[in-house]
């Protein structure tokens, strides 16, 4: 079952079209990565899901219920972590979570137990000081704790790791991965390694549209072309090879960082390697390096964004 | 209801921890002490200024002078401080983004408005009561208190005007995003009311009478019956402002 379905959602701010018929869905109990460049419309989409912004067109369904703007009943299924979570600085974490609990109508005992459990999970159990004195990373953790307080079916995180140092990032990702069994996690990011680390499913938004979506593994095998990288010892060798292999590969480029290497890409990997090796042998070229390159999400991302 | 209590408690905690309530109390405490004292010492101050050859005759100050000070200082200084103190309540949270967590937790937006209204009115009531009690005590100490009934009626009018201002503040805070714009709009409303007051026929209906007619009530130039229209209009406007604030806030981007 899909916990979240976004159908044909469009949104424009004045003349600037941000979302142009966005479609995607998030299956239950998965970690869903929502990818896109800065300004691609990730936050706008999330705000529409939460009913904080009104979509010009389209329907958003959370747990089978339609999201309405303003009074948002569907928010009881969602825990939300804004990109920069803001708290009442004069409160301590326990007080803040108690307030959140009371607002969602939790029982006092239940709330207290859950609060302790969550502060433990996010590693803030000892931070008994006012939130005003918290670092960015601590606020992000508290943000996750408040989002998870009411045991939501869907946890929506807007760029939870973007502003953090590598250790902080890893810790936040670990937390998100940990809660996957209990809830569905949707998070937006432009950090691809984060996605590769924990996501099952992804959607990539570019120029107001979803350019690809689905299972991360399938996407990688289907979309990206595999390739080989060859590094030569002399520039003459490289030129000779290039001349011979002109018709061979459909993506053919020199590498920016090393002038003696080139990268070849084709849909048929076996054929490509075989013929390249033949050319090398026939022309008596001995390369320094001959390597198969696996597609990365970055290549995919670049491919789509550059188009 | 539970959410309403929770959010009102949060408003209380905020006022305490950000010292807003203490500042308000301090200002009203000072005004309270100042009123009778200014009335008492003004003649002495003036006569000490008089040099030889000039005689200034000043009538002996009375309790009326003390109340005159009260109804001058509270509407002027007191209400301005009140408005400034509460002006950031809506706009501040909107621009900072602290509402987002609350609203996405299912807190109704109307609850936010009503909680803020409740707490602001409570603080205004306590501050005004403090100021009034101090003034009354010292006025009674220096002179005497006559016509307590009229005095209470007149302070009640003033209180109602403060409540009205708080409702207007919430409405404007829901409409605009900036603190200054909010202050400007509230100021605009008050100025408009003063302008309307220039038409004699409308004076009777104008909420501004609640802050300008207080002395006439004490000196029995006017009776509370003369305030009925003004009071009714003010109550209606207060309720409408609150409803308006809820409606506007329901549609506001957070």
Automatic annotation (TrEMBL), chain A:
Q: Which family does it belong to?
A: Belongs to the ABC transporter superfamily.
Protein name listed in UniProt:
ABC-2 type transport system ATP-binding protein
Molecular function GO labels: ATP binding; ATP hydrolysis activity
What keyword terms does UniProt attach to this protein?
ATP-binding, Nucleotide-binding, Transport
Where does the record place the ABC transporter domain?
4-232
The species this protein was found in: Anaerosporobacter mobilis DSM 15930
Gene3D superfamilies assigned: P-loop containing nucleotide triphosphate hydrolases
Query: Which Pfam families does the entry mention?
Result: ABC_tran
SMART domains for this protein: AAA
UniProtKB/TrEMBL annotation, chain B:
Recite the lineage of the species.
Answer: Bacteria, Bacillati, Bacillota, Clostridia, Lachnospirales
Q: For this protein, what is any one GO molecular function term?
A: ABC-type transporter activity
Entry's Gene Ontology cellular component terms: plasma membrane
Q: What is this protein called?
A: ABC-2 type transport system permease protein
The residue ranges crossing the membrane are 21-39, 74-92, 113-139, 151-173, 180-199, 227-249
Keywords of the record, alphabetical order, are:
Membrane, Transmembrane, Transmembrane helix
Superkingdom of the source species: Bacteria
């Amino acid at each position: 079952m899909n916990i979240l379905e976004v159908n044909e959602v469009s949104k424009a701010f004045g003349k600037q079209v941000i979302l142009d018929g966005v479609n995607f869905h998030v299956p239950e109990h998965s970690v869903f990565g929502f990818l896109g460049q800065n300004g691609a419309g990730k936050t706008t989409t999330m705000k529409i899901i939460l009913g904080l912004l009104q979509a010009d067109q389209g329907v958003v369904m959370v747990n089978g219920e339609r999201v309405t703007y303003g009074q948002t009943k569907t928010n009881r299924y969602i825990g939300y972590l804004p990109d920069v979570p803001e708290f009442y600085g004069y409160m301590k974490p326990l007080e803040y979570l108690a307030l959140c609990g009371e607002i969602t109508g939790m029982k006092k005992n239940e709330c207290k137990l859950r609060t302790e459990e969550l502060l433990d999970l996010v590693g803030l159990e000892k931070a008994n000081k006012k939130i005003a004195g918290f670092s960015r990373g601590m606020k992000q953790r508290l943000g996750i704790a408040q989002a998870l307080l009411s045991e939501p079916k869907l946890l929506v995180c807007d760029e939870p790791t973007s502003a953090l140092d590598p250790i902080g990032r890893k810790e936040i990702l670990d937390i998100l991965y940990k809660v996957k069994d209990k809830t569905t996690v949707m998070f937006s990011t432009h950090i691809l390694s984060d996605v590769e680390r924990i996501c099952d499913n992804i959607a990539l938004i570019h120029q107001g549209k979803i350019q690809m979506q689905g299972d991360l593994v399938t996407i990688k095998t289907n979309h990206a072309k595999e390739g080989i990288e060859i590094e030569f010892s002399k520039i003459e060798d490289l030129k000779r090879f290039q001349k011979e292999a002109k018709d061979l590969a459909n993506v053919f480029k020199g590498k920016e960082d090393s002038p003696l290497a080139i990268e070849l890409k084709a849909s048929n990997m076996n054929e490509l390697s075989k013929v390249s090796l033949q050319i090398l042998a026939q022309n008596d070229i001995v390369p320094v390096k001959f390597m198969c390159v696996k597609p990365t999400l970055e290549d995919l991302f670049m491919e789509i964004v550059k188009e | 209801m539970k959410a309403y209590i929770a959010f009102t408690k949060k408003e209380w905690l905020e006022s305490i921890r950000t010292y807003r309530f203490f500042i308000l109390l301090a200002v009203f405490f000072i005004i309270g002490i100042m009123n009778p004292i200014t009335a008492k010492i003004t003649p002495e101050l003036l006569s000490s200024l008089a040099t030889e050859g000039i005689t200034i005759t000043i009538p002996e100050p009375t309790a009326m002078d003390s109340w005159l000070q009260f109804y001058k200082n509270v509407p002027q200084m007191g209400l301005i401080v009140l408005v400034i103190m509460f002006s950031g309540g809506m706009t501040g949270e909107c621009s900072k983004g602290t509402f987002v967590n609350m609203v996405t937790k299912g807190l109704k937006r109307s609850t936010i408005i009503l909680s803020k209204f409740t707490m602001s009115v409570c603080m205004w009531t306590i501050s005004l009561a403090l100021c009034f009690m101090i003034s009354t005590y010292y006025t009674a100490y220096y002179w005497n208190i006559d016509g307590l009934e009229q005095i209470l009626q007149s302070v009640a009018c003033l209180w109602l005007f403060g409540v009205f201002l708080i409702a207007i503040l919430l409405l404007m805070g829901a409409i605009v995003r900036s603190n200054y714009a909010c202050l400007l709009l509230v100021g605009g409303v008050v100025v408009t009311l003063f302008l309307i007051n220039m038409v004699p026929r409308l004076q009777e209906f104008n909420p501004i009478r609640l802050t300008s007619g207080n002395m006439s009530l004490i000196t029995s130039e006017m009776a509370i019956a003369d305030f009925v229209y003004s009071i009714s209009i003010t109550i209606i406007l207060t309720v409408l402002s609150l409803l308006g604030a809820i409606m506007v806030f329901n549609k506001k981007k957070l």
